[in-house]
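Structure Section — protein described below
Tokens — whole-number codes for backbone shape
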Amino acid sequence: MNDVQLLLSAQRAMLFNISPKFRMISIDVDRAGVLQVLVIISSEVDEEEKDLMYSFAGEIEGDYSEILSTNVEFLVNCDDINLIPRLPKIVFSLYQ
């Protein structure tokens, strides 16, 4: 799996898995084979929105046998989009 393949998988996985509360989604796969997903949100998420991101991560994980597990983290942050924390690969960003 290379970066381009991972990004294309993430783009496909986002179809029907995005909430208006999501400001930025960034991902990375660490050396241990764990898919890290960081979701920056504008306010606390409910169970349905969590399910959207778990589905997103699960679809990516299902594409690659190299990914052994997934860690999804939600962070409420309304700062300027350029100042918020992120992982190396940004797959979604909403400028407000």
